[in-house]
Write a structure and sequence with these properties.
The complex is a heterodimer of chains A (281) and B (298). Chain A is of the alpha/beta class and 281 residues long. Chain A has helices spanning 14-25, 42-45, 72-76, 101-105, 144-151, 170-176, 190-206, 223-231, 243-251, 255-258, 262-280; strands spanning 2-6, 29-33, 51-62, 82-85, 88-91, 111-126, 129-136, 159-163, 181-186, 210-215, 235-239. Chain A has a 9-stranded mixed β-sheet, sandwiched between helices. The chains are: A alpha/beta (281), B alpha/beta (298). At the A-B interface, helix 4, helix 6, helix 7 and helix 9 of A face helix 4, helix 6, helix 7 and helix 9 of B.
């Protein structure tokens, strides 16, 4: 089973939920941190690092000896990543989406592919948790291909928990598509509600069942709950504001280790998600 | 004219609450919300939309079934597995590269332009605001960010305004890169958590990479004083200015619930005083930069 953790708004507690759910379940669980722009889950898991892999995306390389400067490569490229200026081919690697169009269209077979570094993937363990995250190279704009690589480590038959980035655009979609359930972590504020509505829209487009977690549920107003009732979205967990939780988070201490009664609540959360998925089948 | 972008790396550190508060302190400015993916500044600014435009960008393949002979070349060439065995294109997967369109021997694939969102020019009680709404699950957020920045600059030029005050997106990827390139300065709103420090360090590297001068302030500083000092020491070692600290204060949430800036909600709060101090410090830095240096570290 694959559970995505998303939010719309940043800083609502996605990583807190993802890591504490993984630590509560404890065995036969994978945690994938797909927030490759700002991966943070490792602070709470402290995994070993058993494997570090550099990830590349293909970009073109032109053999100017073979090139006839016909300009077909520039013509097919939708991303303005290749230009032909008289007898020179200019390649703007950072704009390339790696579609391979220029290579296929080149009548002289002058184009081959080399790699642009997207970032790295690290894989490790903590007890029964397999941990994988991606770290986007600073200056790299395109997160989705690195996110897809993180997700290629998914193993069927066990629980996979995916910590998604904030927002509702392509990196979030790449992180949660084809999951069995999405947990949307929100806060009961106007920003939280507005961004939650966008996130619910994204989950609806992907046709994935979802449920809400309301963090700092006592700081704000009632509009998130009213929205949940109106959309018939289950509120699966409410976490009150507690300075101990905020301070534990600041140090990288998992909630279930600081306040152990939360472990039961996370296990009940997991149980309820299972029930919802079973019912849907 | 100066362009200040508020970023953070980590989400939820208080970018938008600070941007709104600065909006009521800055004079002769245009406001810009570059967090087009989850734009929230309008929830405090209460904009009266004067001009609304569609944002068109990118294309999506669409196979015309009557012309398709199911030769399979498109499926073979597509690197995003966006075409299924029934020769239907999944628009969410389609990257818009047009390779299938170009090579289809039957010319059976249309390639219409996408409408990916809207952008707006509005009036607010603090002056003009340029903002946008990227469609859900859409791509090209970087291009939409570039567009709202260009419009903000045009408005500032036409009205002889001194400052573009921009609420930026979280992260370090495409929309952040589009937000900060060529800006006068970025203000990084950090929080004293292990995650917050890690994310701040990455966004500092990004600002250095694009040679944009950066300043740092610490929000919720009293949650962890040791880490607050770590942030400030890191910033100093990097040659960046620390322009202030704000304590953890639910007043920001209360103000947000009322659709107000922190000053409108309570003109005398300690948090408000800290924000004023930050604004005073960073205004000085921006002006100093204008008089004495070009680019480089503030």
């Amino acid at each position: 089973m694959r559970i995505g953790i998303a939010s719309g708004k940043g800083g609502t507690g996605k990583t807190t939920i993802a890591t504490n759910l993984a630590l509560s379940v404890g065995t036969d669980v994978q945690l994938l941190d797909c927030d490759v722009e700002e991966p943070n889950a490792h602070f709470f898991i402290n995994p070993t690092t058993e494997e570090t892999t550099t990830v590349f995306t293909p970009v073109p390389e032109v053999d100017e000896k073979k090139c006839s400067f016909c300009g077909k490569c520039a013509e097919i490229c939708q991303f303005k990543a290749i230009a032909v200026v008289s007898k020179t081919v200019l390649i703007f690697n950072e704009l390339c989406h790696s579609c391979g169009g220029c290579m296929h269209v080149c009548p002289e077979n002058a184009i081959t592919e080399t790699g642009r570094e997207l970032g790295i993937i690290q894989r490790g363990h903590r007890n029964g948790i397999e941990f994988i995250h991606g770290i986007l190279r600073i200056g790299e704009a395109m997160a989705p291909p690195l996110i897809r690589t993180v997700r290629s480590y998914e193993r069927p038959g066990i629980l996979t928990i995916i910590d998604a980035p904030p927002g509702t655009s392509c990196p979030v979609i790449a992180s949660v598509k084809d999951t069995d359930f999405v947990l949307l972590v929100t806060e009961p504020t106007p920003f939280g509600l507005y961004d939650l509505q966008l996130a619910v829209g994204a989950v609806e487009i992907l046709d994935i069942p979802c449920g809400l977690i309301i963090n700092r549920c006592d700081l704000g107003d009632d509009h998130v709950k009213e929205y949940a009732a109106q959309k018939e979205l289950p509120v699966l967990l409410e976490i009150p504001f507690d300075r101990r939780i905020a301070e534990a988070y600041s140090r990288g201490d998992p909630l279930i280790e600081v306040i152990p009664e939360w472990k039961d609540k996370f296990l009940r959360l997991y149980h309820r998600i299972n029930q919802i998925i079973e019912k849907r089948k | 004219m100066k362009e200040l972008i508020i970023i953070s790396g980590k989400g939820g550190t208080g970018k938008t609450s600070l941007a709104a508060a600065f909006a009521s302190l800055a004079e002769k400015k245009v406001l810009c919300d570059a967090d087009v993916d989850a734009a929230d500044l309008h929830l405090i600014m209460d904009p009266k939309v004067k001009q609304q435009s569609e944002f068109r960008s990118g294309f999506t393949a669409d196979i015309v079934r009557e012309k398709c002979t199911e030769c399979g070349l498109c499926r073979e060439l597509c690197r995003w597995n966006a075409i299924n065995a029934e020769f239907e294109v999944n628009p969410i997967e389609c990257e818009g590269c047009g390779v299938c369109v170009y090579f289809c021997p039957e010319k059976a694939i249309n390639f219409p332009e996408n409408t990916c969102g809207q952008w707006f020019i509005s009036d607010t009680r603090f002056g003009p605001l340029v903002h946008a709404r990227l469609g859900i699950a859409e791509e090209n957020s970087g291009k939409l960010v570039t567009l709202v920045r260009q419009e903000s600059k045009r408005i500032a030029d036409e009205n002889n305004l001194d400052l573009i005050l921009t609420d930026g997106p979280p992260g370090v990827g495409c929309p952040v890169i589009a937000s900060i390139g060529g800006a006068s300065a970025v203000l990084i709103v950090a929080e004293p958590t292990l995650s917050g420090i890690h994310d701040m360090e990455r966004v500092v590297q990004l600002a250095n990479h694009f040679k944009v001068p950066a300043m740092v302030c610490v929000n919720k500083f009293d949650l962890n004083l040791d880490l607050t000092r770590d942030i400030e020491n890191f910033a100093k070692n990097e040659g960046l200015s620390c322009v202030g600290r704000i304590s953890f204060d639910p007043i920001f949430i209360k103000a947000m619930v009322h659709g107000q800036t922190v000053f409108e909600y309570n003109s005398e709060s300690n948090a408000g005083k800290a924000v004023k101090e930050i604004w005073k410090n960073l205004s000085k830095k921006i002006v100093l930069n204008q008089r004495h240096t070009r680019g480089g570290t503030i």
